[in-house]
Amino acid sequence: xxxxxxxENHAFLNNLFSQFSPVLLKVEFVGDISVFAFTFDNESxxxxxxKKITSSVAACYQSAFEGEQNDxxxxxxxxxxxxxxxxxxxxxxxxxxxxFSSRKIIHENAxxxxxxxxxxxxxxxxxxxxxxxxxxxxxxxxxxNAYDKANESKIYRLIDNCRLKTAGxxxxxxxxxxxxxxxxxxxxxxxxxx
Length: 194
Known about the structure:
single chain; 2 domains
C-alpha cells in the first residue's frame, strides 16, 4: 500500500531548530499520522537536542489536538532523528525507549539531503510497516481443516456444550469445577493412549 505524504510548515520548527533541517510530514492512513524529521551531523548534536525537540513537539504541536475526535492524531506522532554518523547503542536505546509525547526513531548513517522518496521509504519501514508482505504471511494461517479438527476434539465439545454462568452473584462454580475435571480426564486419557 502506497501512503500519501503531505508536507506541512510550522513556524516553531524553523524558529527553534532550523539548523537540523526540520520537516513535518502527514501520512494519510487510518487517520493522519504526523512524522517529524530532523537531520543531525553527529551523535553529539543528537544527544544535546533530542529532549528539546521532543518537548517542543509536545508543547507546540501535540497539545493542539484536543477532544476525543483527535485521539488518533494526538497519539500517532513520530520523530525521526536522522543522524549522518553511527549512534552509540546506549543513547539510541535511551531515546527510542523514551515514552514521552511521541515515538522516536533513530536512523543512522543518513545521507546529507533526503528526498521525499527517501523519507517515504523510511516512513514505510519504521511507521507504516509497508515492507511486510501480507500475502506471504497468509500462507502460514491454519487451513479450514485444522479449525474443523480442533472443533471436533472432545475438549472443544465439552467447553462448547457447557453453558456456564462464570460471573455475577450466582456463578456456577460447581459446574465449572466439573467441566474442569472432565477436561483433565480427557487430557490424561489422550496421554495414556500415546
